[in-house]
Design a protein that fits this description.
The structure is a homodimer. The first copy, chain A, is built from 13 helices and 23 strands. Chain A is α+β, with helices and mostly antiparallel strands. The radius of gyration of chain A is 25 Å and the shape is globular. The longest helix of chain A is centred in the last third of the chain and has 29 residues. Chain A has 3 domains: 214 residues, Bira Bifunctional Protein, Domain 2 (BirA Bifunctional Protein, domain 2, 2-Layer Sandwich), CATH 3.30.930; 93 residues, Anticodon-binding domain (Rossmann fold); 71 residues, C-terminal domain of ProRS (Translation Initiation Factor IF3), CATH 3.30.110.30. The first copy, chain A, has an 11-stranded mixed beta sheet with strand order 3-7-8-14-11-10-9-22-23-21-20, with helices on both faces. A 5-stranded mixed beta sheet of chain A has the order 16-15-17-18-19, sandwiched between helices. Chains A and B meet through strand 2, helix 2, strand 3, strand 4 and strand 5 of A and strand 2, helix 2, strand 3, strand 4 and strand 5 of B. Chains A, B: One of its GO terms (molecular function) is proline-tRNA ligase activity.
């Protein structure tokens, strides 16, 4: 075990804090290709738990998992022009195998719309085959210029769902239901509150008709797009010729959706819940939920025996790890904290004289002397408390740092303070580009409750009273 | 739902039979890049169940899952020469991003030894950090010239385990323990018997010191390599400088192993258990274990009610699917059979008059009229019976088609009949290359029980009595 490094306080330098946390929490190592990252057990374990638990939710929604190829031939990709243009500068391109040049360029998938299009074309015959609801868990590549572990990596892991429907109403409804499913998942499993909304035309996905998003607030006040759901209309079914016979035996193009969450969520966990001791992992996705630390075990048979008993007892219901090493109690505690384990039990000879052990919560750092007989019942309840506390703290922060403004001066002031700013806005590309240049903020979404136009309020940027005016959430973003 | 195609009888044309089975069993579609395959729910579901169940076994062995980058820089790959030379003709190479040429070629991983080497170098300090036992589930690419779904695809999915140990004994022991773990997994979960053995020098993995394998017999008598475990010695730790401080505080290079199973196993399932109606999926990895078919449900409320009751009852314990469509009973039955669902329950008005339903096993096609009240207890037992029967049939076939020979004439005769042939052999590259040219057979392994030399037996090819002589298993292979 290498020595634990110090973590820069988050109040001092948030970016440095983040880097220190990811490097020290058994979360990542850097790979040798620039911008590539190795997921160590403590971060990959979070992703596996997200996968397992989200798969159950998907199954209840009638989703079936499939797996499509990594490589997309250029000829297939360029059938949908807006989509290709959106991704082109980020596409990693295979041109050779061994020393031989290929007859056609192959792109490493940045997303799989065009592959799914090809699959759907082969699979759909009539309305009886619809809706067709597929999902895949996969790695994708986008050659980002600046990278940051979890938040913006050239390769990332995600789930991408792709569906076909016989009519636009059903497809739109499915698009919206997925964004709600994501919001609920983040609340119930990651303890992260979000703002649900719709992207402006400028920020929507290349190739989509409309994009819904969930936006979370990080501890520095910046926004993180945590999941998206796109209504594709017939944008892919027309160029890729995905047709079905309707009940009148006439051919129609299907209506599509796609939706995804990624390993960014691990970055969201760190920056929503982390503190100056490192990451704090919400219990439901914590690879280790309970650390049992054997303190001075070499001097006491009773300590060893109790540790073994607790391990057997708790492993049945929780993800438990035991540290029996000969390291100091201080090192063991720091190691557990820096890895964000939600609960730890310290078993030492002094407490054991009274048949007690010490239970320490990672979120509040609260210590509690507990009778050994009471431990079993306490763990489940305390893990729930930790989840609820993490969520509540994040919700309070989100509420306290979201501000409504009606003029551009206030807008600039609060954006400079890294707040979430909601303002009436005309949603034009032109205004959006200028606001970004002038303030560094981007539109995050039109929150759910403001999706009806509000012509009476003047756009904070151009002063117009357009029927495209909406209350729009702006923020600096990851 | 498109029409089900006919399956060519396996006795008539085994290769055509295989293609028909994979195309019709909701298993694959072909992608648009040559040699690329789309895994549909029925095959990807098998892989997910393999993953989930094998992960539990890995966890018990102290294995931790990680995830490493897809792309390997050329400079990193070429540090170990034998390894690079072995893979070079099959390496898909990224040279461009968008329109820009990269300063260094990047290879899509064909396996991740060199990436793990880099990770281990960063992670290991002293003997306290050993053994270090990592695994990853990932996609890899090898540009095969001829391809066949599941068996030989350019992209495939696998698990690759990589470990570091402080001494060769422990590493060798771990290598062997993994090959036994694979053999046990295939027996207990896929109902596939295997021959465990060691590869000859000519057939071992590029970069390994020794390679262990499990070889299964397909229904046409050919061998399929179903899993491998490599003892890497210090072949990677020396060039990649993976050192640890031993108990005397001296630096030493670690001893490595690597081991993997792949989506080939789905091909192995098809060709071990399949019949002229399609795939038969062993119950433990069947995405659907029980199909409930509602027959003439529109005419009878009782049918619908019973189907709903059975679904609720059985879904608690088994993976259940219900076909409530208005298709014919014959179509529904064929559809269930072609997808290899181990058990189906047909619920029709005539049987229901006596409170009975019909239970049909996919392996024996045996039909049984069963009282509804007895169904619940019968399902679990029958699924076990199916597993055991599939295993037993395969074991009998393996035994009956494995032949010992002591001369090259018999050798050629039985190889031509597509048997597993065990013969004394000197294990020289030269003899092995000639045998392959002359008979089409390759050495599969030195079976476990024959790994001690047998100098008394003359090599069937060159007649020598060398101390490298072993009884070696030969066969034509996938």
């Amino acid at each position: 075990m290498k020595k634990l490094d110090k973590i820069t306080p988050l109040e001092e330098d948030f970016a440095k804090w983040y880097t220190d946390v990811v490097k020290n929490g058994n979360l990542i190592k850097y790979g040798s290709t620039k911008g590539s990252v190795i997921y160590l057990p403590n971060s990959y374990g979070i992703w596996e738990l997200i996968q397992n638990q989200f798969n159950k939710i998907l199954k209840e929604k009638g989703v079936q998992n499939v797996y499509l190829p990594l490589l997309i031939p250029e000829s297939l990709f360029k059938i949908e022009k807006e989509h290709l243009e959106g991704f082109n500068p980020e596409l990693a391109t295979v041109t050779h195998v061994g020393n031989k040049q290929l007859s056609e360029k192959l792109f490493i998938r940045p997303t799989s719309e065009v592959l799914f299009a090809e699959l759907f074309k082969q699979s759909i015959d009539s309305y009886n085959d619809l809706p067709l609801i597929y999902n895949q868990w996969a790695n994708v590549l986008r050659w980002e210029k600046t990278t940051n572990p979890f938040l913006r990596s050239r390769e990332f892991l995600w789930q991408e769902g792709h569906t076909c429907h016989s009519n636009p109403l059903e497809a739109r409804k499915f698009t919206r239901s997925m964004i709600s499913t994501y919001a609920k998942f983040l609340k119930n499993y990651l303890a992260i509150p979000v703002v649900i909304g719709k992207k402006t035309p400028y920020e929507k996905f290349a190739g989509a008709c409309s994009t819904y998003t969930i936006e979370a607030m990080m501890k520095d006040g910046k926004a993180l797009q945590a999941g998206t759901s796109h209504y594709l209309a017939q944008n892919f079914s027309k160029p890729y010729q995905i047709e079905f016979k309707n009940k009148n035996n006439q051919k129609e193009f299907v209506y599509g959706t796609s939706w995804g969450i990624t390993t960014r969520l691990i970055g969201a966990i760190i920056m929503t819940h982390g503190d100056n001791r490192g990451i704090i992992i919400p219990p439901k996705v914590a690879p280790v939920q309970v650390d049992i630390l054997e303190l001075f075990g070499d001097k006491s048979d009773k300590v060893k025996k109790t540790v073994n008993q607790l391990e057997t007892l708790l492993s049945r219901k929780f993800r438990v790890r035991v540290d029996r090493s000969d390291k100091t109690p201080g090192f063991k505690a720091s190691n557990s904290e820096i890895q964000g384990v939600p609960l730890r039990i310290e078993v030492g000879p002094r407490d054991l004289e009274n048949d007690m052990v010490t239970l320490i919560r990672r979120d509040t750092l609260e210590k509690q002397l507990v009778k050994i007989d009471d431990i079993k019942n306490l763990i489940g309840k305390t893990l729930d408390d930790i989840h609820n506390n993490l969520y509540e703290q994040a919700q309070i922060r989100l509420n306290n740092n979201t501000i409504f403004v009606d003029n551009y001066e206030d807008f600039k002031k609060y954006i400079a303070q890294q707040k979430f700013v909601i303002a009436p806005f005309c949603c034009s590309d032109h205004a959006e580009i200028h606001i970004k240049e002038e303030t560094g903020a981007s539109s995050r979404c039109v929150p759910k409750e403001f999706q009806k136009p509000d012509e009476e309020k003047e756009c904070i940027y151009c002063g117009c009273s357009s029927k495209t005016n909406r209350y729009v959430l702006f923020a600096k973003a990851y």
